[in-house]
Amino acid sequence: MGRPVIEITSGDQLDLNFKAVDENGAVINLSAFTDIDIGLWEIGADGLPTGSDLLGENLAGAVDLVSSGTTGLFKIGLVAADTAALAGDYYLEIRLEDAASLFRTCTPCTLRIRADLITS
Amino acid sequence: MATTIVTARAITQAFTVVWGKPNRIVVPAYTKNDLIIRLNIVDEAGDPVDVSTYTTRTSGIYPPASGTADVSPTPAFLTDGTDGVVTITITDSNTSAFTTGNKRFECQLAKTGSKITVADGVIQFTATKL
Known about the structure:
The complex is a heterodimer.
Chain A: E1 5-9, E2 15-21, E3 35-43, E4 49-57, E5 63-65, E6 73-77, H1 80-83, E7 88-97, E8 103-105, E9 109-114
Parallel strand pairs in A: 1-9
Antiparallel strand pairs in A: 2-6, 3-4, 3-7, 5-6, 7-8, 7-9
Chain B: E1 3-7, E2 12-18, E3 24-30, E4 35-42, E5 56-62, E6 76-77, E7 85-90, E8 101-111, E9 114-126
Parallel strand pairs in B: 2-4, 3-9
Antiparallel strand pairs in B: 4-7, 5-8, 6-7, 8-9
Protein backbone atom coordinates (compact mmCIF):
# COMPACT_ATOMS: atom_id res chain seq x y z
CA MET A 1 0.00 0.00 0.00
CA GLY A 2 1.32 3.40 -0.94
CA ARG A 3 1.84 6.19 1.48
CA PRO A 4 -1.03 8.65 1.97
CA VAL A 5 -0.29 11.86 0.08
CA ILE A 6 -0.93 15.26 1.62
CA GLU A 7 -0.73 18.18 -0.77
CA ILE A 8 0.05 21.71 0.28
CA THR A 9 1.62 24.76 -1.27
CA SER A 10 5.06 25.94 -0.25
CA GLY A 11 5.00 28.49 2.54
CA ASP A 12 1.34 28.07 3.43
CA GLN A 13 0.34 28.55 7.04
CA LEU A 14 -2.20 25.89 7.88
CA ASP A 15 -2.99 22.87 10.01
CA LEU A 16 -2.30 19.33 8.83
CA ASN A 17 -5.00 17.17 10.38
CA PHE A 18 -4.58 13.50 11.23
CA LYS A 19 -6.64 10.71 12.69
CA ALA A 20 -4.86 7.75 14.29
CA VAL A 21 -6.41 4.31 13.94
CA ASP A 22 -5.14 0.80 14.55
CA GLU A 23 -4.77 -1.93 11.95
CA ASN A 24 -8.45 -2.80 12.36
CA GLY A 25 -9.53 0.76 11.73
CA ALA A 26 -10.44 1.40 15.36
CA VAL A 27 -9.74 4.89 16.65
CA ILE A 28 -6.75 5.19 18.96
CA ASN A 29 -7.63 7.23 22.02
CA LEU A 30 -4.70 9.60 22.29
CA SER A 31 -5.88 11.45 25.36
CA ALA A 32 -3.35 9.83 27.69
CA PHE A 33 -0.50 9.69 25.19
CA THR A 34 2.52 11.59 26.36
CA ASP A 35 3.93 12.60 22.99
CA ILE A 36 3.38 12.71 19.26
CA ASP A 37 6.50 13.32 17.21
CA ILE A 38 6.28 14.44 13.61
CA GLY A 39 9.29 14.66 11.33
CA LEU A 40 9.87 15.56 7.70
CA TRP A 41 12.71 14.36 5.48
CA GLU A 42 13.81 14.49 1.89
CA ILE A 43 13.22 11.33 -0.13
CA GLY A 44 16.31 9.78 -1.67
CA ALA A 45 16.65 8.18 -5.07
CA ASP A 46 15.82 4.84 -3.49
CA GLY A 47 12.48 6.18 -2.28
CA LEU A 48 13.59 6.16 1.35
CA PRO A 49 13.95 9.12 3.70
CA THR A 50 17.39 10.60 3.83
CA GLY A 51 19.40 13.29 5.55
CA SER A 52 18.52 15.33 8.60
CA ASP A 53 14.98 16.24 9.47
CA LEU A 54 13.66 19.35 7.78
CA LEU A 55 10.95 19.73 10.37
CA GLY A 56 10.60 18.21 13.81
CA GLU A 57 7.67 18.91 16.09
CA ASN A 58 5.95 17.31 19.06
CA LEU A 59 3.19 17.89 21.60
CA ALA A 60 5.33 20.41 23.41
CA GLY A 61 5.59 22.34 20.15
CA ALA A 62 3.33 22.72 17.15
CA VAL A 63 1.53 19.38 17.48
CA ASP A 64 -1.80 19.49 19.29
CA LEU A 65 -4.51 17.03 20.16
CA VAL A 66 -7.94 17.83 18.77
CA SER A 67 -10.87 17.38 21.16
CA SER A 68 -8.44 16.04 23.77
CA GLY A 69 -7.42 13.24 21.42
CA THR A 70 -10.22 10.89 22.43
CA THR A 71 -11.25 10.43 18.79
CA GLY A 72 -7.71 9.93 17.53
CA LEU A 73 -7.53 13.41 16.07
CA PHE A 74 -4.43 15.56 16.18
CA LYS A 75 -2.87 18.26 14.07
CA ILE A 76 0.36 20.07 13.37
CA GLY A 77 0.24 23.80 12.78
CA LEU A 78 2.58 24.77 10.00
CA VAL A 79 3.99 28.25 9.75
CA ALA A 80 5.24 29.77 6.51
CA ALA A 81 8.89 29.22 7.35
CA ASP A 82 8.37 25.46 7.76
CA THR A 83 7.94 24.86 4.04
CA ALA A 84 8.87 28.14 2.36
CA ALA A 85 12.12 26.68 1.04
CA LEU A 86 10.67 23.31 0.08
CA ALA A 87 9.10 21.95 -3.08
CA GLY A 88 8.50 18.39 -4.18
CA ASP A 89 7.70 15.18 -2.34
CA TYR A 90 8.87 14.66 1.24
CA TYR A 91 8.66 11.79 3.74
CA LEU A 92 6.54 12.56 6.80
CA GLU A 93 6.75 10.26 9.80
CA ILE A 94 4.63 10.24 12.95
CA ARG A 95 5.47 8.41 16.15
CA LEU A 96 3.12 7.99 19.08
CA GLU A 97 4.25 7.52 22.66
CA ASP A 98 1.66 6.18 25.06
CA ALA A 99 1.40 6.58 28.83
CA ALA A 100 3.57 3.49 29.34
CA SER A 101 6.33 5.07 27.22
CA LEU A 102 5.73 2.56 24.42
CA PHE A 103 6.38 3.78 20.89
CA ARG A 104 4.27 3.16 17.78
CA THR A 105 5.07 4.51 14.35
CA CYS A 106 2.17 5.41 12.08
CA THR A 107 1.97 4.70 8.39
CA PRO A 108 4.38 7.20 6.82
CA CYS A 109 2.91 9.88 4.56
CA THR A 110 4.15 11.77 1.56
CA LEU A 111 3.95 15.53 1.97
CA ARG A 112 3.69 16.90 -1.57
CA ILE A 113 4.66 20.55 -1.56
CA ARG A 114 3.83 22.57 -4.64
CA ALA A 115 6.12 25.45 -5.35
CA ASP A 116 4.37 28.78 -4.96
CA LEU A 117 4.55 31.78 -7.27
CA ILE A 118 3.61 34.49 -4.79
CA THR A 119 6.55 34.52 -2.45
CA SER A 120 6.14 37.88 -0.81
CA MET B 1 -7.56 20.76 5.19
CA ALA B 2 -8.82 17.19 5.00
CA THR B 3 -7.94 14.78 7.75
CA THR B 4 -5.37 12.15 6.86
CA ILE B 5 -5.95 8.72 8.37
CA VAL B 6 -2.74 7.26 9.73
CA THR B 7 -2.51 3.69 10.98
CA ALA B 8 -0.45 2.66 13.98
CA ARG B 9 -0.36 -1.07 14.60
CA ALA B 10 -1.18 -2.23 18.10
CA ILE B 11 1.82 -2.81 20.35
CA THR B 12 0.65 -6.36 20.99
CA GLN B 13 0.43 -8.67 17.98
CA ALA B 14 -1.31 -11.93 18.86
CA PHE B 15 -0.95 -15.30 17.17
CA THR B 16 -2.59 -18.64 17.85
CA VAL B 17 -0.10 -21.49 17.63
CA VAL B 18 -0.67 -25.23 17.89
CA TRP B 19 1.37 -27.04 20.51
CA GLY B 20 3.93 -29.45 19.09
CA LYS B 21 3.39 -28.37 15.50
CA PRO B 22 5.52 -26.09 13.35
CA ASN B 23 4.02 -22.62 13.61
CA ARG B 24 5.41 -19.98 11.31
CA ILE B 25 4.43 -16.39 12.02
CA VAL B 26 5.10 -13.24 10.04
CA VAL B 27 5.17 -9.99 11.97
CA PRO B 28 5.41 -6.60 10.28
CA ALA B 29 7.16 -4.10 12.53
CA TYR B 30 8.87 -0.76 12.64
CA THR B 31 12.32 -0.25 14.10
CA LYS B 32 12.53 1.89 17.25
CA ASN B 33 9.03 0.74 18.14
CA ASP B 34 7.89 -1.42 21.00
CA LEU B 35 6.43 -4.79 20.08
CA ILE B 36 4.85 -7.53 22.14
CA ILE B 37 4.36 -10.86 20.41
CA ARG B 38 1.61 -12.76 22.17
CA LEU B 39 1.41 -16.48 21.51
CA ASN B 40 -1.86 -18.18 22.35
CA ILE B 41 -0.85 -21.83 22.56
CA VAL B 42 -3.64 -24.29 21.85
CA ASP B 43 -3.93 -28.00 21.13
CA GLU B 44 -5.27 -29.40 17.89
CA ALA B 45 -8.80 -29.06 19.22
CA GLY B 46 -8.20 -25.35 19.78
CA ASP B 47 -8.13 -25.55 23.57
CA PRO B 48 -5.48 -23.68 25.59
CA VAL B 49 -2.47 -25.78 26.59
CA ASP B 50 -1.22 -25.55 30.16
CA VAL B 51 2.46 -24.66 29.76
CA SER B 52 2.98 -23.56 33.35
CA THR B 53 5.58 -26.28 34.01
CA TYR B 54 7.76 -25.02 31.15
CA THR B 55 9.97 -22.84 33.26
CA THR B 56 12.80 -22.48 30.75
CA ARG B 57 11.59 -20.10 28.10
CA THR B 58 13.75 -18.75 25.31
CA SER B 59 13.26 -16.55 22.29
CA GLY B 60 15.54 -14.82 19.85
CA ILE B 61 15.62 -12.46 16.94
CA TYR B 62 18.30 -13.46 14.46
CA PRO B 63 19.79 -11.99 11.30
CA PRO B 64 18.86 -13.85 8.10
CA ALA B 65 22.19 -15.64 7.87
CA SER B 66 23.51 -15.91 11.40
CA GLY B 67 22.86 -18.08 14.41
CA THR B 68 23.85 -15.32 16.78
CA ALA B 69 20.82 -13.56 18.13
CA ASP B 70 20.55 -9.79 17.97
CA VAL B 71 18.13 -9.85 20.86
CA SER B 72 17.05 -12.67 23.18
CA PRO B 73 13.99 -11.61 25.15
CA THR B 74 12.80 -14.09 27.77
CA PRO B 75 9.18 -15.08 27.09
CA ALA B 76 6.86 -14.41 29.99
CA PHE B 77 3.58 -15.96 31.03
CA LEU B 78 0.70 -13.55 30.68
CA THR B 79 -0.69 -15.00 33.90
CA ASP B 80 0.82 -18.29 35.09
CA GLY B 81 0.99 -20.32 31.91
CA THR B 82 -2.10 -22.38 32.62
CA ASP B 83 -3.96 -20.39 29.97
CA GLY B 84 -1.29 -21.15 27.36
CA VAL B 85 -0.46 -17.51 26.78
CA VAL B 86 3.15 -16.42 26.42
CA THR B 87 4.37 -12.93 25.61
CA ILE B 88 7.66 -11.81 24.12
CA THR B 89 8.48 -8.16 24.70
CA ILE B 90 10.76 -6.37 22.27
CA THR B 91 11.58 -2.82 23.26
CA ASP B 92 12.21 0.17 21.07
CA SER B 93 15.86 0.17 22.13
CA ASN B 94 16.18 -3.51 21.10
CA THR B 95 15.50 -2.58 17.49
CA SER B 96 16.99 0.90 17.33
CA ALA B 97 20.00 -0.32 15.34
CA PHE B 98 17.99 -2.50 12.96
CA THR B 99 17.54 -1.50 9.33
CA THR B 100 14.82 -2.34 6.84
CA GLY B 101 14.70 -6.08 6.23
CA ASN B 102 13.73 -9.43 7.65
CA LYS B 103 14.88 -10.94 10.91
CA ARG B 104 14.26 -14.52 11.93
CA PHE B 105 12.31 -15.20 15.10
CA GLU B 106 12.06 -18.28 17.27
CA CYS B 107 10.49 -19.13 20.62
CA GLN B 108 11.04 -22.31 22.64
CA LEU B 109 9.63 -23.62 25.89
CA ALA B 110 11.48 -26.29 27.83
CA LYS B 111 11.43 -28.35 30.98
CA THR B 112 13.22 -31.50 31.97
CA GLY B 113 12.59 -34.05 29.24
CA SER B 114 10.70 -31.77 26.90
CA LYS B 115 11.56 -28.88 24.59
CA ILE B 116 9.00 -27.46 22.21
CA THR B 117 9.52 -24.80 19.56
CA VAL B 118 6.18 -23.08 19.76
CA ALA B 119 6.76 -20.58 17.00
CA ASP B 120 9.27 -19.40 14.47
CA GLY B 121 9.06 -17.05 11.57
CA VAL B 122 9.99 -13.67 10.30
CA ILE B 123 9.77 -10.15 11.65
CA GLN B 124 9.68 -7.77 8.72
CA PHE B 125 11.25 -4.55 9.94
CA THR B 126 10.79 -1.21 8.28
CA ALA B 127 13.29 1.40 9.37
CA THR B 128 12.01 4.59 10.92
CA LYS B 129 13.63 7.97 11.26
CA LEU B 130 12.17 9.13 14.55
